[in-house]
Amino acid sequence: MTDAAFSLVKQYYQAFNAGDMPAFLDLLTEDVVHDINQGGREIGKEAFAAFMSRMNECYEEKLVDIEVMVSADGQRAAAEFVVLGRYLKSDEGLPPATGQQYRLPAGAFFELREGKVARITNYYNLNDWLEQVGAAV
After folding, report:
1. Positive or negative torsion for Cα 17, 23, 27, 28
2. What is the distance between the terminal CA atoms of the chain, rounded to a whole angstrom?
3. What does the alpha-carbon distance between residue 103 and residue 86 come to, in Å, rounded to a whole number?
4. Measured at the alpha carbon of residue 127, what is the angle toward residues 43 and 14, in degrees to the nearest 5?
5. What residues does each domain of the chain span?
6. Of 87, 109, 131, 133, whose CB is crowded by the most CB atoms within 10 A?
7. Phi first, then psi: what are they for 20, rounded to 5°?
8. pLDDT above 90 (res 115)
């Protein structure tokens, strides 16, 4: 169970880094729960796909130094990583984008079910990101 869970989370990040949204979305359950950093909760693969579409339009990101941890029963996992990014297009409610680059420590928590990601909760320090893109905090 733990090997399969570890592999699933690694595939999730490999697809993300490759920009392969069909493969990325295929790793999710239809009723996936997405807890957005310092934001709301969205439910369903369609909502997650819309979120990722906006993210890919506004940000160019690659995740590095990824470390994955899995619970003994393989039903939960966590990952810690560094986001290397560039702010491409102004995102609603955030400062104007001018191509600013950022390096941001981040983490995620997963709930896994039947070989798919059933919940993803992301976390990063928003104030750190705001400082890096030149916004007053």
Report:
1. positive
2. 43
3. 9
4. 50
5. 2-132
6. 87
7. -90, 80
8. yes
Q: Side chain identity at 39, as an amino acid letter? A: G
pLDDT, tens digit, 9 for 90 and up, residues 90-106: 998 889 999 999 999 99
Instruction: Name the token pair of 117.
Output: 């990601």
Please give the model's pTM, rounded to 2 decimal places. 0.92
Q: Which amino acid is at 38?
A: Q
CB distance 77 to 71 below 8 Å: yes
**Which residue type occupies 130?**
L
Q: What is the 3-state secondary structure (H, E, C) of the chain?
A: CHHHHHHHHHHHHHHHHHCCHHHHHHCEEEEEEEECCCCCEEECHHHHHHHHHHHHHHEEEEEEEEEEEECCCCCEEEEEEEEEEEECCCCCCCCCCCCCEEEEEEEEEEEEECCEEEEEEEEECHHHHHHHCCCCC
